[in-house]
Amino acid sequence: MISFVFPGQGAQFEGMGRDVYESSPKSKEIFHHANEILGFSLSDVMFYGSSEDLKQTKITQPALFVHSIAKLVNIEGVTPSAVAGHSLGEFTALVANETLTFEDGLKLVYQRALAMQKACEEQPGTMAAVLGLDDNIVEDICASISDDIAVAANYNCPGQLVISGSLSGIDTAIEKLTAAGARRAIKLEVGGAFHSPLMESAKSQLESAILSTSFKPPTCPIYQNVIGTAEDNPSAIQANLIAQLTGPVKWTQIVQNMIDDGITTFIEIGGSGKVLSGLIKKTNKDSIVETA
What we know:
Elements: E1 2-6, H1 18-23, H2 25-38, H3 42-48, H4 51-55, H5 57-72, E2 82-85, H6 89-96, H7 102-122, E3 125-131, H8 135-144, E4 150-157, E5 160-166, H9 167-179, E6 184-187, H10 200-211, E7 222-223, E8 230-231, H11 234-243, H12 251-260, E9 265-268, H13 275-283, E10 288-291
Parallel strand pairs: 1-2, 1-9, 9-10
Antiparallel strand pairs: 3-5, 3-6, 4-5, 7-8
């Protein structure tokens, strides 16, 4: 069985999408439609913008979403048995299994990006990658920082967990995690504390938009970030999508559960094509991983 998987922030690159725009009429139509919906030329920023331009949350998120869909429309003769997306990629996955239309998906992604950028400005925070410790040790150390904010945010693969929180909370966590034997505990170059309580204001903004958007029964299940398991009920999908902004990305669990449920091949669609493929192989070296 095959799964389509879609990347989130961190998979962007300069010139992204220009090749598929020039080679595929279907993709070109996606880019033009996206520019119309957003009211500005996202494609120009994607094709010609600098890495700094692409790192802005309000650009990164819609850019990765559109890039993945522009790749997806060219896939023929392959029907996924399941889909999943890492953080932002979950919205793309919901277009792939027809829960959301492209138009609604892009509008939600852009609203999400603007809300998250605003939350980052109002509540400064950061994230850090922790390598070489069991998840439960990282969770316990974060929980011990009771007077500040530090939480497990991205369960990427065994031995690799990203934490998120306030600037001082993450500094304290890095000290404690290093003392506990982490091979590395290093801050990431991100705009804020994604998937932490510091995103609460963004979650409130996005909730009404999600609840007022039509979610259709999916053509195949989506394995969702906050639960790590398959879901096909539209109302539950909405609730999990809302919870995702302040909740963790359980990617390790998603990959493991997909494999347990019979998925043998993962096709990563969009972005650099390397991020999720690498994490999947680190989780299960026997999985077949392809890019589109």
